[in-house]
């Protein structure tokens, strides 16, 4: 399908420039798409590794909590952990990867310096609860990293899809339309030139016969 334009030399020149820009843009977008895919695949691999490790550690921590609950009872367990030793806030910034703003997440801990991670005394609690708290404390950085990587994967997947649509629009719609229109105008101009030449030859022949 060609564009609806007047078959003039000026239009032909304009379309050739547009085609040149479109071809260059297509190449740049295709390179960007390939690079995004490489980074996306690396992130997906990292995400899978992190998820397996985090789920394993959370499962272990949950088992320790269940053991502590069985020994101490629900009310004693809740009373032991109701007042945390510190509070944790989330600091989120961004970094740019191939025009995608991915999150950078960090914990900001607030509490007494060098304070114990256990918000209770040890006389009325069990070793299983200590182990559960310690496992959760140790896994928090990996859990945060997992959230960061998963969000980055989602954002990069969206950007890959947008880039793919733009690449396809150029490759299968705009560039073919421009090429077909350029071909049509070139043929029209050649046809007009031949017609003009034929008329000039007829005029010349008529003048010579007189």
TrEMBL record:
GO terms of biological process kind: proton motive force-driven plasma membrane ATP synthesis
Protein's UniProt keywords contain Nucleotidyltransferase: no
One GO molecular-function entry: proton-transporting ATP synthase activity, rotational mechanism
The keyword Oxidoreductase belongs to this UniProt entry's keyword annotation: no
Alphabetized InterPro entries for the sequence: V_ATPase_D (IPR002699)
Keywords noted in UniProt: ATP synthesis, Hydrogen ion transport, Ion transport, Transport
Range of residues in the leader sequence: none
Family: Belongs to the V-ATPase D subunit family.
Role of this protein: Produces ATP from ADP in the presence of a proton gradient across the membrane.
HAMAP family from the UniProt entry: ATP_synth_D_arch
PANTHER family according to UniProt: V-TYPE ATP SYNTHASE SUBUNIT D (PTHR11671)
Name assigned to this protein: V-type ATP synthase subunit D
Taxonomic source organism: Caloramator mitchellensis
């Amino acid at each position: 399908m060609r564009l609806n334009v007047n078959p003039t030399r000026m239009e032909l020149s304009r379309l050739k420039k547009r085609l040149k820009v479109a071809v260059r843009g297509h190449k740049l977008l295709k390179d960007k798409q390939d690079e995004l895919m490489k980074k996306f695949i690396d992130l997906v691999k990292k995400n899978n590794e992190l998820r397996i490790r985090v789920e394993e550690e959370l499962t272990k921590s949950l088992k320790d909590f269940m053991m502590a609950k069985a020994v101490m009872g629900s009310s004693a367990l809740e009373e032991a952990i109701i007042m945390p030793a510190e509070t944790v806030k989330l600091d989120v910034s961004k970094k740019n990867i191939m025009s995608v703003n991915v999150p950078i997440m960090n914990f900001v801990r607030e509490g007494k310096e060098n304070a114990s991670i256990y918000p209770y005394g040890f006389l009325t609690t069990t070793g299983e609860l200590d182990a559960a708290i310690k496992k959760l404390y140790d896994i928090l950085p990996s859990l945060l990293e997992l959230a960061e990587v998963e969000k980055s994967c989602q954002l990069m997947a969206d950007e890959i899809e947008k880039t793919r649509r733009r690449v396809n629009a150029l490759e299968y719609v705009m560039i073919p339309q421009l090429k077909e229109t350029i071909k049509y105008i070139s043929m029209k101009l050649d046809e007009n030139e031949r017609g003009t030449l034929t008329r000039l030859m007829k005029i010349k022949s008529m003048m010579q016969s007189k």
